[in-house]
Design goal:
InterPro entries: Big_10, LD-transpeptidase, LD_TPept_cat_dom, Transpep_catalytic_dom
Largest sheet: 5 strands, mixed
Structural class: alpha+beta
Number of helices: 3
CATH topology of the largest domain: L,D-transpeptidase catalytic domain-like
Number of strands: 17
Protein name: Lipoprotein-anchoring transpeptidase ErfK/SrfK
Strand content: 25-35%
Shape: globular
Pfam families: Big_10, YkuD
Helix content: 10-25%
Pathway: Cell wall biogenesis; peptidoglycan biosynthesis
GO molecular function: acyltransferase activity; peptidoglycan L,D-transpeptidase activity
């Protein structure tokens, strides 16, 4: 009888230990992190960009869990913050500018981009002084006479990364809501242009306003420069270099 009780007790202990071990193993099982597929990362792999170039991750489809998508992104710059443009495009913003002359890496899930920044060329448009000043590290500032947006068509205030460069471009007033038949309408061949906004603000050569540059603001919002100076700026600026406008 005593032996029977001992066997029953041992069986109960073994069963309890087995249940405890099984429960511990189940608790240790962790589901793997599943990342959202990435369609593109910008700056593109191998590119050389300005220090204000927007770091953008474009996902292959709509993202239902934004916090999870943000956790999948890593940029080799400390700090920063995220904003969303719709359900598929995530932007990372540094605290200030990207470091100059740096090799940087972005990863988002299994996608990766390695790129470089330039020396940190910047420009400042002073709409009160009618000047456009370019700052290149290691060189004296270059002050250029300029003409910005006239009353009612003022150049927007802020800091804008150069979005694209165009050696030759058509400026069509219809793209900013002005009919060609209007006294304000225009259709012009432009040169040495850098786009600052999707709304049609450019830095560009403007031989038609040379007499006003440095004295009066007469444009429809763009930053007008003398042709030779516009060509020089076109040669030294990169996409992503910042332009700050102020009064």
């Amino acid at each position: 009888m005593r032996n029977m009780i001992r066997h029953v007790f041992l069986a109960l202990v073994i069963a309890a230990l087995a249940a405890l071990t099984t429960g511990t193993a189940a608790a240790a099982t962790v589901s793997p992190q599943v990342n959202y597929p990435v369609e593109a990362i910008s700056p593109a792999d191998g590119s050389l960009v300005g220090i204000a170039y927007p770091v953008t991750i474009r996902f292959a489809s709509s993202v239902p869990d934004r916090a999870r998508a943000e956790r999948s992104v890593n940029v080799s710059v400390p700090g920063g913050s995220f904003t969303w443009n719709g359900d598929r495009e995530l932007r990372w913003h540094p605290d200030g500018y990207l470091p100059a002359n740096a090799r940087l890496t972005i990863t988002a899930g299994d996608a990766r981009s390695d790129f470089r920044t330039d020396a940190g060329t910047t420009a400042e448009a002073d709409m009160s002084a009618h000047t456009f000043t370019v700052f290149i590290p290691g060189a004296p500032p270059r002050v250029i006479p300029a003409s910005m947006g006239k009353p009612g068509r003022e150049t927007p205030v802020g800091t804008f990364p150069v979005m694209e460069k165009d050696r030759s471009i058509i400026f069509d007033s219809r793209t900013i809501g002005i009919p060609l038949s209007s006294p304000e309408g225009y259709y012009l061949q432009g040169e040495f242009a850098e786009r600052l906004t999707t709304g049609g603000v450019f830095v560009h050569s403007a031989p038609w306003s040379v007499d006003d540059q440095g004295y009066r603001n007469v444009s429809h919002g763009c930053i007008n420069l003398p042709p030779q100076e516009a060509e020089w700026y076109f040669d030294v600026v990169r996409v992503g270099d910042p332009v700050t406008t102020h009064w």
